Each structure stands twice: as structure tokens, then as C-alpha cells.
Amino acid sequence: MTEALTHTDFKSDIKPVWCPGCGDFGVVNALTKALAKMELRPENVAVVSGIGCSSRIPAYTTCYGFHGVHGRALAAGTGLKIARPDLTVIVTGGDGDGYSIGGNHFLHACRRNVDMTYIVMDNRVYGMTKGQASPTTEPDWESKLSPEGTGLREFHPMVIALSAGANFIARAFTGDPNGLADVIVQAVRHPGFSFIEVLSPCVTFRPEQRDWKKIVKPDAVKPTSDIARAARRMLRDTGFDLGVLYAGTRSPYAPRGPRAQRDVRELEARFAL
Hints:
CATH topology: Rossmann fold
CATH class: Alpha Beta
Distance between the termini: 48 Å
Helix content: 25-40%
Strand order of the largest sheet: 2-1-3-4-6-5-8-7
Structural class: alpha/beta
CATH architecture: 3-Layer(aba) Sandwich
Number of helices: 9
């Protein structure tokens, strides 16, 4: 009988290098708790990321990890899940990596509905590159790099995810790692493409986000599989309503035709010059 693992079994020996108070610490804690709760094994899980503070997460777990290039984490995760459907694939990233450089991949990952989970840590700023406005930054947020604000309408990821076809959509907060862990469990277990927007404060460049803990609140509306009802719910969204918005019934993407298992050497020979 295999011994049950705890969340510490999913944490690597590498010490996180985030700023003190960074919300991403809560994501690592929640993710490892969720993996233990689902009774998974590190060798059966792959964590994929792009570039950014949040994209360091694969190094902090004992699972298989892939640290890709900026904005391309979903492309790598999609290929991995299709090639190895037996693996639990979790993609992590931030609002800049996911919605700006990787925005096109985000749209089509929702549309394809491959069975994987996408966790985006949204702090509404480019933290690693010293505080530029991101796609989700408020238009009137003033900084040294945008002293009069951007004047641009912010990106609404949950609206985009719903309209593009994501099969599971939720929002959580890093200040509640146990609640976030529960949402991750639901997302991983739900078939198809699951998207979690995680409010993750950047206390270095957005110190006012410390007050998010006073603003976030559980949404009173229960999850729905009705896309029209979910859309109506988004019309009154404050950006701080937590919980599962939508749990759809679309079947996950599956490659057409038989999938023959090939030896690696056979595959190499096909691409030899």
C-alpha cells in the first residue's frame, strides 16, 4: 500500500526568492495542499510556467517542472497534456505573462478545452521588471512609469475566459490558502480547461493591495453550468467576488484518430535531416 503524502512532500528544498509579503507564497502553499488532498504523486504531475515572479513556482515543487519562455506556458502545457494524457498538467503564470505576451494562447486554450488547469496570479502590475502597468492595471493607476495612468481599459480575464470557451472558471485570493486549495482541487477534477484567477498582492509595487483582504468576499451566487447565467453574473462583478463562477459540460479536447505509441528513437528518425 502506498503511503499517503502530505503537502510538504510536494515542496522542493529550493527557498522561494519572492519579496516578503508577496501573495505568491500563498499559491505554493495552496497548490501543494491541493495535490496532497487529491492523493496525487509528484511523478504524475507536471507544473508548467512562463516568465515572471509567479512563474518560479515549478522550481518550488517536487513535481515535474517546465519553465518556458514569456507567454508560451499554455502552448507547452497543451503539447504536454496531449502527448502525455496520463499526467495532471497545471500551468502557472502572472497577468503580464498570461494576458499580454500570452494573451493569444489564453484565448485558444479556452477554445480548445484541453484537460488542464491554468492558475494566474494577478497583481495588476509587472512585478519582476519593476512596476510597469499590466493588462489588468486600472486605467487611473499612477506610477513613475505611467505618472498620469495608462488611460486604457483593463483586461477582464474571467469575461474573456467565459466567452472563449473555458470549461471551469473561478476566482480566489492568496490570503486564504485553504480556500484557494479547495478551488484548485475542483478545477483539476473538472474535465476540460479550468481557469483560476488568483488575486495575489504585490506589496512592493502596489502596497495599496494589502487592503485586498478587507475587500474580497465570497460570491453569494452558486456556480452554474448555464453560460448565459454566468454572463449575467459577470455584469455585476466587482473584481473581488470569490468562488466558482462557471462549471461547464463541454467534453475535453481529444486528438482525432488512433494514437499509436511510438518509440522515441522512431520519432527521432522521422525528423532526422
